[in-house]
């Protein structure tokens, strides 16, 4: 039944092709077609999962070779797939959460005249992401990798008539391209070193390579991961990506795209394990991003941007865990899956709030919404409890394990990382409580629509939207416990990623207590600031840090100063030089040689005559020389 | 001896004569007849080219379906044709693109109607389509010629129809002095390429003289290359370097290689979109093709000597062309600078001297031809609607003409080498083939992929997104004829991105032969993966 693997990708791909090429008469049911394609892929995934469960541990990975893609001497790239415990985990997350987001979008995009195209792009997104996690070699992975970039470009810029959306889309693609450069170079390094870039080939031979080469490969892979997963220093696209319709944010943040970087690092564990220096860089990137995202999340008044900061931060946890090596890989993926549930739920909830509030995103204009959107309130609230790591909910199990693993890294490094992770947990609790309080509690601060003067009439969303939120809320509550029960998730993934138990200087109980304590502290502080006093409609000036955090800690200013401005100055001066200096020089040379400068602008036939003459002259010269040679 | 190759060259040549001789006239019916005849001839040429490619046996002799007719016996000049894998795919590319260009240029050469109802220049249509067919014939001869003299003659002769195509037919988007601009562009094109050609002529003569002195009074390429490879024909190193430079200069102007590129933006900017495609996708490919076939085969030592210098020039071209594309205000000039960047990749692939690099370069020639044709022709459709080439005059097109915008995006994505589309395969092969020998150059060239994304998406953003600009409101979406132009190009881009094997199968043996001429082998991986552990599993 291997043949089901290509169908996983083919179903959404066919959906995308149909929807994008099918024309207007698909408008009436195109969204259901797209949802069905996603659901079909999920069904295939379930069948494959069931089959995999039926096989013994060492028989679980299966391969399928479809065709030879780029065969050149010594260079062999194939379209072939590898389905193992790691990829099926992703497949189920991508197609499962993806299908729910499709269903939600049926309602959310109901009034958009380009809804059919939206679903085409969603399908394309799933297909690319599935290709990414199913490829058995890096070059095919690269196709999915950039395919994800394309789909995100199309979806972030879906409302292209808004210049801000078009700019955000381009920015996302460009920043990702910088990361893609890393993937390109990593593949080139692998090819030069091993003559091969299949997973099995590279991982099997990796230990023969020098540690310098392996470190270089690992760092290039990390660069790629930073792009897709919005890790410092390639994080700047994620906040702007909120320009896309909200279901897109859910898709990007939970099921696809940002998880790709964590997948890449975990999949390449055989390389990273042999490159400890690179692993250090990975944990530093993870720790920095974890704090960066959390700080940014605290300052945003835009509900989606606050959630975006939170995504960065949570992915930072995963990258940190993946950088810890075999003590962290499984927990990185476990947090990735639980995060998939609650972050998708939170975004869909935010979309539901916006849906009821005339697309308002400013939380200072919300307040007291719990009575008007009860289902959204409850599901969002469960997602909230999950993400702050409330004991017993999904995020509690997965985040706790990462913090423990960070301490277990050992030495000073372990203490620093562990403390970073703890501080991150406190800040997460703070800003998520802030979101919760500003949105659903307190007094109404609703504003009339500045364009129409219409007062918002918040209302609960239709069932196509609430149903996915309810399902995701179940995941947010129970998935973590299920995974942690009897170490089932660890046992499931360990054959692929490897797993060793870490030895934390603090016992598990202490870590759990500490985590819960800092979490409560964060909640409490947030309550004191936003729950007890009324929230001002106009934001207070704030401290220097707050002001910097509102501007994403100056990331755009930095990029502009370092890259954009010098770059455009360079391009502009080259344009000038090319037309004036270089062209002038070559023309001047020609003019000096041929004395033709005054005639250069003169027109037409004279030149063709002289050209024909010179050809004739050339031929005569040729003939004459040959004759001369023969007579000698 | 079969006459297949001669027929493939002669058919468009005869078609050109026939088209030119068709009765002129201002009425629509006669123009349509002219166009139909020209299009039919180009499609028949495509059919012949397909037969040639189908008859070609990848594992067989280097040059196949050879023909030879004595031309100037006393100088050993024969009209000799033969096809190898590289020539075959480029001939196919030409044969595919010419009918597409014709269809895209359907109304570009309609004579303008004077206020009094008469028509200016009633032979315009005949001339335009005849010139295109003439270019096709000459380009195909260049790809098939195995005689140096024959190659030279057609390499030069194709400048004449190209000159008239550039100078005589504009895109109606220029300002009041567009006629003068166009003439300037045409003359510049001619002078640059003429200069290159004359230098090459001197080198051709020089080579003949040397060869004749050692008993090879011939222009026959296979004879010369094998004599050089076997050491029977020895060229003194200084002379070899001089001759190499003579040949290379001509090809580097035509390709064009930085810093000899400045004629290209003028020519592509002023000519019609169809002519611009002929320039960059067809005619320029003769330059890079000739580097592979003539420079490497005839002057293996000099090729190696100059290889690193050329690599650096190519690398500069990649980055320079891309940066200039970013800074352009004119849509067609932007595409031209993007092409300069791409020619840098092609030349880099050739002179990296690895199988991946050269196979990549050959595929790159094909893929760049197809993808740039798609991008440029849609740009042409856009420009013909608005009557301006300036990016700033556009905005929000996707709102009023979504299909046009969509195909323009696909063209741009192909140009930035999105994986899954054909240019990715060739670009990655060139990069990896360069990297294994010259890691630093390979890594710097990789920056080109970021810049490509920048200029391609910036152009899309500025023209297609945002609020609908004044002058765009009523813009019509693509018509059926225009869809017929774009559809095959997009389909080919997708197909060759997913399944390039039919091309690599043909090209690989020819690249092997070329590499062995220059005595080059691929660097071996430091720690090769054992053959059993993946990769080649079937």
Calculate the terminal CA-CA distance of chain B, rounded to whole Å. 40 Å
Percent helix among the residues of chain A?
Answer: over 70%
**SS-based class of chain A:** mainly alpha
Total E-strand runs of chain B: 2
Inertia-based shape of chain B: globular
Order of helices and strands of chain A: HHEEHHHHHHHHHHHHHHHHHHHHHH
Integer average pLDDT of chain B: 90
Strand order of the largest sheet of chain A: 1-2
Strand order in space, largest sheet of chain B:
1-2
What is the beta-strand fraction of chain B? under 5%
Binned strand content of chain A = under 5%
Radius of gyration of chain A: 28 Å
How much is the average pLDDT of chain A?
A: 86
Tell me the series of helices and strands of chain B, N- to C-terminal.
Answer: HHEEHHHHHHHHHHHHHHHHHH
Major sheet attributes of chain B: 2 strands, antiparallel
How would you classify the quaternary structure?
heterodimer
Question: How many strands, what sense, and barrel or not for the largest sheet of chain A?
Answer: 2 strands, antiparallel
Number of helices of chain A: 24
List keywords for this structure.
heterodimer; A: 632 residues; mainly alpha; two-stranded antiparallel sheet; 2 strands; 72% helix; 3% strand; B: 538 residues; two-stranded antiparallel ribbon; 20 helices; disordered C terminus
Description:
The complex is a heterodimer of chains A (632) and B (538). Chain A has 632 residues and is mainly alpha-helical. Chain A is built from 24 helices and 2 strands. Chain A has helices at 4-21, 30-53, 85-108, 115-134, 138-156, 163-194, 199-205, 211-229, 236-240, 246-255, 258-267, 269-272, 276-299, 303-323, 329-356, 374-387, 394-408, 411-440, 463-484, 488-497, 508-531, 544-550, 555-594, 605-631, and strands at 62-72, 75-83. A two-stranded antiparallel ribbon of chain A has the order 1-2. In chain A, helix 6 packs antiparallel against helix 8 (211-229) and helix 14 packs antiparallel against helix 18 (411-440). Mean pLDDT of chain A is 86; it is low at 593-605. Chain B is mainly α. Chain B has one domain (4-537). Chain B has a two-stranded antiparallel sheet. In chain B, helix 3 runs antiparallel to helix 11, helix 9 (237-254) packs antiparallel against helix 11 (273-298) and helix 12 (300-326) runs antiparallel to helix 13. Classes of the chains: A mainly alpha (632), B mainly alpha (538). At the A-B interface, strand 1, strand 2, helix 5, helix 6 and helix 7 of A face helix 5, helix 6, helix 7, helix 12 and helix 14 of B.
């Amino acid at each position: 039944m291997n043949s089901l693997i290509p169908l996983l990708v083919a179903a959404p791909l066919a959906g995308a092709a149909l929807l994008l090429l099918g024309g207007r008469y698909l408008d009436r049911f195109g969204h259901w077609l797209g949802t069905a394609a996603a659901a079909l892929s999920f069904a295939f995934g379930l069948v494959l999962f069931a089959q995999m469960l039926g096989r013994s541990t060492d028989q679980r990975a299966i391969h399928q070779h479809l065709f030879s893609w780029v065969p050149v001497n010594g260079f062999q790239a194939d379209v072939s797939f590898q389905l193992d415990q790691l990829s099926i985990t992703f497949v189920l997350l991508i197609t499962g959460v993806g299908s729910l987001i499709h269903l939600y979008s049926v309602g959310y995009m109901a009034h958009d005249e380009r809804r059919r195209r939206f679903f085409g792009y969603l399908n394309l997104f799933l297909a690319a992401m599935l290709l990414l996690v199913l490829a058995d070699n890096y070059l095919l992975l690269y196709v999915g990798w950039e395919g994800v970039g394309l789909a995100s470009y199309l979806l972030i810029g879906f409302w292209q008539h808004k210049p801000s959306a078009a700019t955000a889309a381009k920015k996302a693609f460009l920043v990702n391209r910088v990361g893609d450069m890393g993937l390109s170079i990593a593949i080139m390094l692998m090819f030069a070193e091993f003559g091969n870039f299949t997973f099995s080939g590279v991982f099997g031979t990796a230990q023969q390579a020098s540690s310098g080469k392996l470190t270089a490969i690992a760092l290039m892979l990390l660069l790629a991961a930073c792009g897709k997963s919005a890790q410092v220093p390639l994080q700047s696209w994620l906040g702007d990506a909120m320009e896309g319709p909200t279901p897109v944010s859910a898709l990007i943040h939970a099921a696809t795209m940002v998880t790709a970087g964590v997948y890449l690092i975990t999949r390449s564990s055989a390389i990273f394990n042999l490159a400890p220096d690179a692993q250090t860089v990975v944990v530093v990137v993870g720790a920095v991003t974890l704090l960066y995202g959390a700080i940014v999340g605290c300052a945003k008044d835009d509900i989606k941007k606050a959630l975006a900061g939170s995504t960065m931060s949570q992915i930072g946890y995963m990258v940190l865990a993946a950088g810890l090596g075999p003590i962290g890989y499984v927990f990185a993926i476990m947090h990735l899956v639980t995060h998939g549930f609650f972050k998708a739920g939170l975004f869909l909830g935010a979309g539901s709030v916006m849906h009821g509030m005339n697309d308002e995103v400013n939380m200072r204009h919300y307040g007291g919404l719990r009575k008007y959107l009860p289902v959204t309130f409850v599901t969002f609230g469960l997602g909230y409890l999950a993400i702050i790591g409330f004991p017993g909910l999904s995020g509690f199990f997965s985040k706790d394990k990462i913090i423990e693993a960070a301490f277990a890294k050992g030495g000073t490094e372990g203490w620093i990382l562990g403390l970073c992770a703890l501080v991150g947990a406190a800040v997460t609790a703070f800003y998520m409580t802030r979101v919760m309080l500003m949105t659903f509690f307190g007094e109404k601060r609703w504003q009339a629509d500045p364009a129409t003067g219409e007062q918002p009439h918040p209302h609960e969303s239709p069932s196509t939207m609430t149903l996915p939120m309810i399902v995701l809320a179940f995941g947010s509550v129970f998935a973590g416990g299920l995974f942690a029960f009897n170490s089932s998730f660890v046992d499931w993934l360990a054959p692929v990623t490897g797993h060793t138990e870490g030895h934390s200087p603090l016992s598990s109980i202490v870590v759990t207590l500490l985590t819960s304590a800092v979490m409560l502290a964060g909640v409490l502080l947030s309550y004191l600031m936003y729950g007890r006093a009324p929230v001002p409609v106009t934001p207070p000036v704030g401290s220097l840090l707050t002001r910097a955090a509102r501007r994403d800690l100056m990331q755009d200013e930095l990029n502009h100063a370092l890259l954009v401005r010098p770059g455009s100055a360079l391009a502009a001066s080259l344009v000038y030089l090319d037309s004036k200096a270089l062209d002038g020089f070559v023309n001047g040379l020609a003019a000096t040689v041929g004395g033709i400068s005054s005639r250069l602008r003169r027109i037409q036939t004279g030149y063709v005559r002289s050209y024909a003459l010179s050809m004739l002259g050339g031929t005569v010269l040729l003939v004459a020389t040959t004759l001369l040679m023969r007579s000698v | 001896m079969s006459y297949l190759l001669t027929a493939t060259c002669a058919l468009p040549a005869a078609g050109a004569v026939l088209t030119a001789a068709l009765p002129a006239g201002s009425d629509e019916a006669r123009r349509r007849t002219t166009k139909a005849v020209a299009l039919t001839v180009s499609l028949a040429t495509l059919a012949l080219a397909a037969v040639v490619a189908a008859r070609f046996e990848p594992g067989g002799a280097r040059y196949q379906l050879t023909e030879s007719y004595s031309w100037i016996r006393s100088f050993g000049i024969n009209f000799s044709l033969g096809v190898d894998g590289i020539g075959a795919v480029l001939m196919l590319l030409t044969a595919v693109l010419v009918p597409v260009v014709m269809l895209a240029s359907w109304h570009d050469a309609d004579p303008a109607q004077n206020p009094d109802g008469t028509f200016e220049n009633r032979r315009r249509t005949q001339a335009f389509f005849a010139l295109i067919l003439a270019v096709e014939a000459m380009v195909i001869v260049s790809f098939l010629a195995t005689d140096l003299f024959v190659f030279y003659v057609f390499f030069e002769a194709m400048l004449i129809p190209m000159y008239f195509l550039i100078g005589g037919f504009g895109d109606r988007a220029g300002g009041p002095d567009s006629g003068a601009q166009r003439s300037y562009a045409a003359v510049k094109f001619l002078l640059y390429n003429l200069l290159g050609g004359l230098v090459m002529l001197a080198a051709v003569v020089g080579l003949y003289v040397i060869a004749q002195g050692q008993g090879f009074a011939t222009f026959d390429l296979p004879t010369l290359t094998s004599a050089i490879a076997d050491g029977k024909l020895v060229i003194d190193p200084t002379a070899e370097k001089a001759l190499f430079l003579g040949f290379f200069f001509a090809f580097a102007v035509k390709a064009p290689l930085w810093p000899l590129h400045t004629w290209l933006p003028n020519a592509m900017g002023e000519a019609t979109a169809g002519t611009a495609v002929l320039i960059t996708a067809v005619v320029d490919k003769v330059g890079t093709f000739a580097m592979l076939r003539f420079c490497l085969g005839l002057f293996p030592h000099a090729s190696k000597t100059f290889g690193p210098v050329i690599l650096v020039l190519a690398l500069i071209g990649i980055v320079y062309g891309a940066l200039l594309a970013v800074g352009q205000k004119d849509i067609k000039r932007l595409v031209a600078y993007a092409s300069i960047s791409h020619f840098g990749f092609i030349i880099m692939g050739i002179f990296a001297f690895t199988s991946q690099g050269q196979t990549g370069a050959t595929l790159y020639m094909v893929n760049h031809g197809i993808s740039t044709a798609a991008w440029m022709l849609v740009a042409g459709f856009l420009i013909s609607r608005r009557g301006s080439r300036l990016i700033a005059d556009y905005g929000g097109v996707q709102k009023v003409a979504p299909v046009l915008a969509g195909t323009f995006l696909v063209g741009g994505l192909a140009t930035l080498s999105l994986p899954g589309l054909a240019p990715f395969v060739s670009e990655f092969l060139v990069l990896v083939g360069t990297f294994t020998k010259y890691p630093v150059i390979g890594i710097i060239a990789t920056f080109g992929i970021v810049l490509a994304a920048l200029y391609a998406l910036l152009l899309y953003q500025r023209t297609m997104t945002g609020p609908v600009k004044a002058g765009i409101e009523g813009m019509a979406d693509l018509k059926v004829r225009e869809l017929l132009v774009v559809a095959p190009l997009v389909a080919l881009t997708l197909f060759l991105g997913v399944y390039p094997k039919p091309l690599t199968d043909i090209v690989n043996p020819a690249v092997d032969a070329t590499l062995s001429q220059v005595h080059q082998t691929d660097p071996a991986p430091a720690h090769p993966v054992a053959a059993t552990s993946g990769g080649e599993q079937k």
